[in-house]
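Sample pair:
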Amino acid sequence: MSQSNSPIEISWFGALCDDDYEQLGVPQADLLSSWAHCSEIVRTADSLGFDNILLPSGYDLGIDTLSFASSIAPLVQNMRLLTAVRVGENWVPQLARQLGTLNQVLNGRLVINIISSEMPGETLDGPHRYRRTTETMRALRTLMNGERLEMDGEFISLQVDAPRICKATSPAPAFYFGGLSNEARETAAMDADVYLMWPDTEEQISLIISDMRERAARHNRTIKFGYRVHVVVRETEEEARNAAAYLISAVDEATGDAIRAKSLDSTSIGVQRQAELRAAAHEDGFIEPSLWTGIGKARSGCGAAIVGTPQQVIEKIQRYQALGIEAFIFSGYPHVDEAKRFAELVLPHLHHGPLAL
């Protein structure tokens, strides 16, 4: 592995989906998603020097992402907003206008996390859902580039000019996108700018990156790579491991199963892969040095954390960078406290900046 001299993008996590705790599985009223709490997370990350922040989206949990992003945007001075969009829930011309307006408020610092979602209550199989996502991404990019849309597709049939706001804020923001299935990978290879991955072994990450580069090349494209992972950093390794153990100490197996089952993506290939990592880990929960899978016992989706001293965390990040990762989305519990700790112990030692897109 060779170390790149290019800066990496360091992002934090906005926890809009009722995903903030001192101990996982033990809800606290002051940590539930709300304007007051989530805006504190975002403003804290902005003031600490993070390059970006993911504002996630879930239908049932938490608060609405676009409404929140529009409200917080005037208060964000420096970093980007990686705003999640559930594409199955939106009419494309309206979405383009909303995002174009948000991008203007942010002075061009909007980036978009595309989620291949269904409508609430709708059930589509993977191939149909991803074909709709592909059409939606192409239609959205066209309009946000300020161009007229002429599409007669399987799911979208529109002939419409771009909204004026999109012409004023073009080109379209970058699309971040994730998914492990074959359909998800093809969608990303054809239309995403940044392919996001959940935690995995370094060997598997390398294989995924190679596969995605080959897929993108077949479409005459290149793609960048991002990595979404939790972090538990402390001055000593013993302190870090103790903090990690405390996070999940209140969750028994039945409670953990119930938490994961609530997620709309609980049966996805990505979530299944996180479960495989937990099953393959050592007794202490570590699947490889510094990568701890225990956190996945109490949450769906991203199910592992980098755990260790500042130097161990930095070295792990650098190993990922050497594999080809250029953008990182970190989170820790509680999110305000851990953002401050990460910014003190790790961030000053990383060569970082907004991802060149």
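The CA atoms of residues 81 and 320 lie 23 Å apart.
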